[in-house]
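Example 400.
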Amino acid sequence: MQTFVKGKRVGYWLSEKKIKKLSFQTFVDMCRKQGIEMVQLDLSQPIEKQGPFDVIIHKLTDHIVDADQNVTESLLLVQGVQDYIGAHPETVILDPLPAIRTLLDRCKSYKLIHKLEECMQDDRICSPPFIVLKSECGTETLEQLQKHGITFPFICKTQVAHGITSHEMAIIFSEEDLKDIKPPCVIQSFINHNAVLYKVFVVGEAYNVVQRPSIRNFPSGPTDRRAISFNSHHVSKPESSSDLTCRDNMEGQYGEPNKDVIQKISRRLRQALGISLFGIDIIINNQTGQHAVIDINAFPGYEGVPKFFDDLLSHITSILQGQVSNGAACGHLRLNGIAQSPSVACGVHCGMLGNESSWLMDSEGIKKGPHQGLSCGGACMAPNFHQHGRSSLAAETSSQ
Ligand SMILES: Nc1ncnc2c1ncn2[C@@H]1O[C@H](COP(=O)(O)OP(=O)(O)OP(=O)(O)O)[C@@H](O)[C@H]1O
Ligand SMILES: [Mg+2]
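Predicted structure in complex with magnesium ion:
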């Protein structure tokens, strides 16, 4: 047992379904063996009475989405957590609620990834252009698509990235089918990627890459093919296999994502949002070989990551040891319960996104100081930031 973690208390809240799916009890037992007290939070009771907590781990996405829809029970639960966080700046939250809200909104997370790409200026990374469609397609929609560099075919996704309906999507091949698009939604260029998706599962400084099936290549430009509606869960699960995922017309560039690129993207996301537990979906453009980020998920399933609990335990241990603070092992500090960007943390201002930084965090509790924004320069890394990503490419073959 490591003495510095003895007596430390970690509160956790995950849905019963998630606890079961992850076999989270195994992790609870692992922590207890190390002397860490694991406390399952009862959100219907004041959290104050269940504390104190050094760390809180949670997946509150369902409740956050419901609270945003004004569902009273969820509003109260989320408010209870928010109040506890506000009253306990010393407690490390995995992960901060404002960051989770950013990831729950595809428009916000795509804007974030585009801004990060602008900062990184790395030719190896190029995520697809997108727009948000608020109302039915009209004559001006084609203009808008053109203006933003969106070409046929493109993919339509709901703006809210969580919940049953959020996985219903459509691929549109021609002007004719614009009328079938159901707003509000996010429209994103479809990138041919030889039907391979790479899911990057991040835990603090560690990450694992898992290969999954994905959508097949289509001819570029408008075609007379009718729109395809699909549920994303039938496309990129380990066992997914259908006409849509068939790999008989592969061409152009292949290859696994570059380690350095993955580390760069995940480090930037951790810096920008102060998160530790997230997934990045990456595809490789088969024409250019560039990496494209098409999705970022809060506390994903870590399916196919055999050492998830070891990584989580060592991340929590580092936090408890005081080596790293919050999800941002890369230099976030929590001041008054608010994750601060590294530019605040190290007192150096290395580039800001100006007013546009509002999409980084929602308004709750965030007051933007003169330095608060997104750090573009690597110079602001905290000295204790090390990259030791586990790059096991746990290739899961598609069942074709
Ligand atoms: N721009 C794109 N170009 C090509 N294929 C795409 C694109 N966006 C999404 N896809 C395909 O659609 C699938 C679902 O997309 P996305 O990851 O955005 O959905 P999701 O429902 O949020 O996924 P998750 O289950 O990871 O939450 C991807 O796994 C990929 O196969
Ligand atoms: Mg995805």
